[in-house]
Write a structure and sequence with these properties.
With 76 residues, the protein is of the alpha+beta class. The protein has two helices and four strands, in the order βββαβα. The chain is 26% helix and 39% strand.
C-alpha cells in the first residue's frame, strides 16, 4: 500500500491513540496495529482495528475509567 499523503511505502507497525471522551475522560490505547509510511511517518489504522479500538473505549467508559491506558493486544 502507498501512503495517500506522500505516496511512500507503508510498513506494518504500532501506534498510540489518545482519546478525550465525554466529561473530560482521557483514555490512551497503546500498541495499536497500524500502517506507517516509511517516508513521511504518517500512520493509518485499518477499519477492523478501529472497530476494536471503539469497543475498547466503550468498555473503558462503562467500567467507569476516567483516565488511563489500555493495551490493545491484551484487551482486544
Amino acid at each position: 500500500m502507498l501512503c495517500p499523503l506522500c505516496k511512500g511505502d507503508m510498513s506494518p507497525g504500532k501506534t498510540i491513540l489518545p482519546f478525550e471522551l465525554k466529561n473530560g475522560k482521557v483514555i490512551v490505547v497503546l500498541n495499536v496495529p497500524a500502517r506507517i509510511c516509511d517516508q513521511c511517518g504518517e500512520e493509518y489504522v485499518d477499519m477492523d482495528v478501529t472497530r476494536k479500538v471503539e469497543q475498547l473505549l466503550d468498555r473503558a467508559e462503562k467500567d467507569g475509567l476516567s483516565m488511563g491506558f489500555v493495551e490493545y493486544g491484551a484487551a482486544a
